[in-house]
Amino acid sequence: MLTSAGRGWTGIELRQNTGYVDEIAAPSLPYHLTLVYLGRSPHDMMQRLDGRVYEERFHQGEIAIVPAGLPCEWSWKSRADDVLEIRLGDAFLREVAQSVEVDPDGLEIVNRLCVPDPQIERIGHSLMAEAEADGLLGGKLYADSLANALAISLIRDHSSLGRKATRKVTGEHAGGLSRRALKRAIDYIGDNLQGDLTLAELAGAAHMSPFHFSRLFKESTGLTPHQYVIERRVQRARELLSSTDLPIAEIALLCGFAHQSHLNRHFKRLLGLNPKALR
Length: 279
Known about the structure:
This protein is an alpha+beta fold.
C-alpha cells in the first residue's frame, strides 16, 4: 500500500502491507525489522526462532522486533489485515550507538513479539504520515530524525544493555547547544534553505552526532530541527513576497519548498493566511 522507496531516506525503509501470506520464512536480514500492527482485529501468530516456538496474539498498536542476522519463521492462524514494516539498517544502528558511546560490538537487539511500545508506535505513524504526504511534512530532515529516534528506542528499550543503555542515552549532554554550536547550525540552515537539508549535515555543522544535536537543538530553540527549518523557510518566503515581484512558485523553490502548494500548506499553517494575501 505504501513504501518509502525512492524518497532518499537514510538508514531506514518503510512498507505498509495488507493481507500477509499465511507463512513467511525470513533469512538472516541485514536490517533490524520492526513490525507495527495497524489492524483493528487481533490475530494469532506463531514465530519459530532458534529452535523455539512462540505463540502470541497481535493487537492494534503492538510491535514485533526481529534483530538483524537472526533467521526466523512466521505463521498466522488468522489473517493480519494491516502491518507496518520498518527496516532499520544495522550499520545505521551501529553509528547511532557509537554516537551515544555504546559499544556496537557489545550491543544485541532483543527479539520481541506482540509487545506494546507507544513511542515506536508513534514513530511508525509519523513515518507513515511523511510517506503519505510525499515528503511534504518535513522531508529528509524529518525522516532522519525519526530514524535516529527509532535507533535510540531499540538501543534503550530493546537491547541486551538494559539500564546501562538508558543511562548512556538519557544522561549526557544536557543544557542545550553552546552558543557557538547553535550559531554554526543556524548559519548553515540560513545559507542552505534552498537545499534538501539532512540531519547529518546540520549535526556536522555543529560538530556533534545527529542524536545529540537533535536533543540539544530542541532544548536551545524549543523546536526540532525540521520544525525550525520549515519556520525559517516560511519567514524567508514572507520576506520575498513583501519585497520582490517574483512569482510565488519561484519563491517557493528559492526557499526550499517542493512547489507552490507545499509553500501554501506551511505558510497557512504557521501564519494563518495564504501567500497571495501578501501580494
